[in-house]
Amino acid sequence: MASNKFDVEATTLMVEELRGTFNAGKTRSYEWRVAQLKGIIKMMDDREQEIIEALRLDLGKPEFESAVYEIGMLKSSCARALKELKHWMMPEKVKSSIVAFPSSAEIVSEPLGAVLIISAWNYPILLSLDPIVGAVAAGNVAVLKPSEIAPASSSLLAKYVPEYLDSSAIRVVEGGVPETTALLDQKWDKIFYTGNGRVGRIVMAAAVKHLTPVVLELGGKSPVIVDSDVNLKVAVKRIIAGKWGLNNGQACISADYIITTKDFVPKLVDSLKHQLEKFYGINPLESKDLSRIVNSNHFDRLTKLLDEEKVSSKIIHGGQSDRAQLKIAPTILLDVPEDSLIMSEEIFGPLLPILTVDRLEESFDFIRSRSKPLAAYLFTNRKKLKDEFVRTISAGGIAINDIALHLVVPSLPYGGVGESGMGSYHGKFSFDVFSHKKSVLYRSFVADAPARYPPYSQGKLRLLKALVVGSVLAVISALIGLPEHFGSKDKSA
């Protein structure tokens, strides 16, 4: 839904229309939810070449990455939801308590209502429609606000979402700050934002006015620790795929910096240089397999990181750039100062600093001293090191001996912790994040307990205390008048 005048009044009217659809119960049926999921798959199939072209216009994204990481992953998400949806929608039977005996209990997943999804520019199709998968699977109405920084993809979504999905329940709003501000002024039942921490704080501040719950999928500086005992060739190929093979580093879970030992770093650097040349050629600026930088602002931001006086001399590979084409070559830097700009903010581009330590274990303290990252990676064959990494490093997600691959495992939640975000999705977690888990207790009119009603007495108090604690022996002792301490050590129902 694009409009020349999209202000608070127009937004309010749109939200009222969507709530009317929701309140009519249209989105609650299994059939409606299935139809929307199938509609997304059909849109990906019918419009695949148009989507690939939009991603090329916005980011210079290679067809391979567009087909696999945007279209393919989105279709996989829909297929998973279609396969599991009936099971997800079923009430979950749970045990009741002795205090409510006789009774039965269950947890019912119900849709939240009207949700707002604000998307990011780096994966503008996947990060727009993957949250929609969860929202419609859970039975909500939704507004999608694509990123204006990827205008071709935003325009494509505005054009085709109404054609393939139910426009009485799902709308697309294009635009920039004024449109986003108008949307955030409304009361929503959930806001799902993907992007950076600065805007995440604005979203959260706006949500506070209405006590709206939020999901913030942010980022951070995701570290990669490389041990000397690894299969170096395989490890380096995976590092490259998880850095430059993800939108040329413009991905929130890409490798942000490497830590390895002083003894091992020469071998690691040599292998990285060799594989980068093998993958992207002698002149990577001409490679068709690397995305360009999204716009001139981000190009200037990245070159500023490289041009800092204490950093520019640390470039040991790459560094070439072409502002006219918005291209920056894969660049490796060695032993940059910890207080440099490139180590102070998320890079979100093709630059990769390498830090060195005497002992690899020292890297754990360095990571823990910084904000919690969205992802953390370790390459090693040492079980003790793996166990300590998983136990002591707090991150949104962890992958051992690979980068970013945990993202495609639907049984794992995807989300951040601390400043890298809050809330998670993917697979059933997408359904759950857009659902309210409603507690339901069923009782009959038999076996009513007089002890819960006035007038109160010490005997009633003793019995109810035993029931609330859930001690069978204490209940029996209270009923037959045994001493109060009898059965007090039994805490199980």
Mean pLDDT: 94
Question: What's the CATH first level of the largest domain?
Answer: Alpha Beta
- CATH homologous superfamily heading of the largest domain: Aldehyde Dehydrogenase, Chain A, domain 1
Query: Numbering strands along the chain, what is their spatial order in the largest sheet?
Result: 10-13-14-9-8-15-16
Large-scale geometry = globular
Please state the CA-atom Rg, rounded to the nearest Å: 27 Å
Strands, count:
20
Report the sheet-strand fraction: 15-25%
Query: How helix-rich are the residues, as a percent range?
Result: 40-55%
> Which architecture of the largest domain per CATH?
3-Layer(aba) Sandwich
Span of the ends, CA to CA: 56 Å
Features:
alpha/beta, Aldehyde Dehydrogenase, Chain A, domain 1, Aldehyde Dehydrogenase, Chain A, domain 2, 7-stranded mixed β-sheet, 6-stranded mixed β-sheet, 17 helices, Aldehyde_DH_dom, NAD, oxidoreductase, aldehyde dehydrogenase (NAD+) activity
